[in-house]
Structures are given as C-alpha cells and as structure tokens.
Amino acid sequence: MPITRRALIARVAAVGGYRAAHAAMGALGLLSPGLVAAASNGESYASLPTARVGNGASVVVIGAGIGGLVSAYELRKAGFQVTVLEARERVGGRNWTLRKGDKVEYTDGTVQVANFADGFYFNAGPARLPSHHQLMLGYCRELGVELEVLVNTSRNALVRPNLAEPPMQIRQAVNDSRGHVAELLAKAVNRQALNAELNADDQRALLQFLRTWGDLSEKLEYLGSARSGYKVWPGAGEQVAEKNAPLPLTTLLNPALANALMIDEYPEFSPTMFQPVGGMDRIPKAFEKHLAGSLRLGAEVQAIHNGDEGVSVTYRDRRTNRQHNLKADYAVVALPLPLLAKLDTNFTAPVQQAIGAVQFGYANKVAWQSRRFWEADYQIYGGLSFVNQEASGLWYPSGGFNQAEGILIAAYNNGETARVFGEKSIAEQIAASKQAVELLHPGHSAELRNPLAVAWSRIPYNLGPWINHEVAEPAYSLLNQAQGRIHLTSDGLAHSGVGIWQEAAAGAARRVVRNIFERVQSAPTRQTA
Predict the structure, then answer these.
(1) What is the pLDDT of residues 186-197, one digit of tens each?
(2) Is there a contact between 66 and 91 (Cβ–Cβ < 8 Å)?
C-alpha cells in the first residue's frame, strides 16, 4: 500500500526521534515553518492564570468536542458567562465511545446499532493517551477520570506484508531485520569499507556494538536469535528450546513491513500508554458534569456574524426545528475548519479562503465482539497486528484480560486506502475486515460477531477524522488571530505534527482562552452586546 505523509513522518521519527523527525520534514518541505518552530514548545498544564478575569463577560462556544469543552471549562472557571452550542445530542465530538444500543448514523441515512454485550465498548475515535500528552492527562487528574495502562505494542502480534507468505510475529520481524543489518555492517567494517568514516578504535567498538545489537555469532554472522522467539519453548524434562530459523532478508525488505518494524519507536505510538477505564468518552462526560447549565445539545449552528459590539449566532434547535439567535460579547468557534467553511459567516475574504482550503483526511474502524482467541491461541495481549490488505490493522483490547470475550478492532486505516474503503458499503467494509482477521488468524474469522463500522467521512457533524495536511496546511498565522470578536480553535490550528489527537485540540483551546483573558483584562471597559 502507498505510504501516507503521516506514515512517512512516523518512519523518519522512528530513526531520528521526535525533534529529528520535525527537522527532517521541515527540510523536505512537508511541515510548515511554524510547525517546525513550535514542535518543542508545548502548552504547560499549569500555565493558565487562575484569577477570575471574566467579570461576567459572555462567551458562546460553538462545538462540544474536546476543544470546545476545554474552552468552556476554563472560561467558566475564570468567571465568564458561557453557553456551549452542540449540534449532536452528546458531547465529545470525535471522542466517541459506542456501547450496546448506540447508533451510528451516516450522512446518507444509513443506520447501524451497536449490538455488543453489556459492559463492552468500542472507542470509534481517539483511544490512546501518550505519556507526553500532559494537557489531557492533567485534565484526567483534575476531573477525576480513572486511567489504566494501554498496551500499544505486543511483539507477539502479527504482521503479514506479503499475502503469498504466512504471517510472522513482530518480534521475529524486528529482531531478524536487526540481525541481518548488523551482519551486513560488520562485513563492511571487516572489508575496511568504513575507513574514511571511522578510525581503528571506532571500528572495533562498532563491531562489538553490532555483535550485541544484532545478536551475532563470534564470527559476526546472524544465525538466528532467541529474541526472535522459539519454535519450541524451553521447558521441563525433554523439552529443549528450539529457536525460530531466521527469516530471509529479502522477506524483511518488503516496504509493507515498515510500520510494524518502527511504529513503537515514535513517541506518539509508545509501547505503553493510557486509556480511561470504561471508555475514552469518560473524559468529555467529566467535562459535561462541570458545564451543567451551559450546554445546549441539539443546537445546529447555521450562522456566525461579527458585530461592533459583540457576536450574533443563529442556530436551529433540532428537537423543535425552531430557529434561535444568541448574542454574546465573544465567540469561540471550536469546529473543524472544513465544517466551519459550510456556515454563514462574515469573515473577511482572505479568512474565508483560508478556511475553505482546508480539507479532512480519512479514517475507518470496524469492531467485532469475539472470543478472545488472540490471547488464548496466540498469546497476544494488547497491541496491533498489520496486514497488507485494505483493512490494514487489527487492534487488540488492553482491558478485560482472560475474560471469555472482548472487542477486536479488525479494520483501522487512514489516507487514500481509507478514502476508498470508506466509500464502500457497510457490508463490503465488514467483509474486508473479516478477511483481514482470517489472513492473520486463519480459522478464527468464524468467531466474529456483532460488527460495527465507522467511516468518519460519513459521520454527520464530523465528515472526517482530522485535517489532511497533504492537501493544504492551515494558514496558521492568519487563522490563529482573533477575527473581530470571534476566536477560532481546533486541532487543525495547533502545531502538533503527526500527533494531532486530543492534545492538540486542548492546546489550541487553551491558547484561545489565554487570548480572551488578555483581551478582557486590557479593555478599558467591557462592552456588552
């Protein structure tokens, strides 16, 4: 499958680390200069002022995704009068956890109903909290959201880059690749091919390093490694260990193997991360409790107009189909830019053009309820498997270990593959997902039941999972400025590289909150609408 920009950044980062990846992408022209400059300057969780500076000024927040919830929560704490308008009947936006009885409605009117057993859930959107996402982890602490460890990498998981060959364990792919590369480098050193780069002492040190790193023999040959796993594990009595025979180097050079080899080297995909106990939507639900009285659900915003004395917002109450007009001193628009482009606004022509240039990317997930055969028969506890097929990846649950059943995500793709996948019928998506399981776990696709597909490009009030930076980078310097009394915020307006996620939405929201604080404090008198 063709490599996406997101995957390319991940691969570069796997070799050189987070900052090196951003520097390299900047040199290649794949990141905006602002993104490169801001990569190492994160918003500190403790950096917002704690004083009540609002003095009753009114703010309407449009959108109750993570960015809108963070904005409203911080503004209320600071003494602003806050109203949050959300078109859906739930908070969270793309932070969406599905349980028994929940509906997945598409823009074409297609409806699925989750039929998982009681107690099971499926995170259709974000599902991971890396340890360096200190804003989101900080809000979990502040709001009392209980966390548990998420296993993002299992070396027992599988990868099948060539469908003409059987799947292999990721541990064998990683360590056999390392062993072969170490042997090739050792041969180059012994042929004195690196004399121009290394002196004699460095060459001896390199050979010793390669022997350890690649688990080479005394003759600096790669003959296989216990790190790659065993055909027969060591045991009692006559059970003598038998290591796996090394995979051929030609097998390991398949480009489709790259994600499995390097994904856990990138900070955004660390082997261990966190997840809220009971589902990712525990986070927006915790915000919701603190925003009682400020939320208006089912409020579909249609127009946002700047005025000299305030902001006017027109919205339709979807429950009554009645239209309403709301006035406030300021507005925080926490909608993804492609959704904002569809509204009636009086932004300047350059701002409207900048908003309209941004497009969504694509992503899909398909989840199943099943016997936990991946644990019982493959000893895979959490992590991801990869297959060179349109479903792309399997994601195993990190909770409920040793229970009889669990929820398996058996399609997880993005980019052009996801665009094509998402345009297929639900039945076709489910069939491809089932085939992916069979390709990695032969015979076990028959155990899958209660499928549920989520194609983010077809979800109303979302229409996509994130911004597609391959089409156009947002005009950060322009769109991050206040547009009259309107402040824009979304994950697409935060410089967070490949890891846009919820952390970027929170960071962008806090930047807007800070700007409003400063604006109100510097105003000689507060004007009311």
Answers:
(1) 999 998 887 788
(2) no
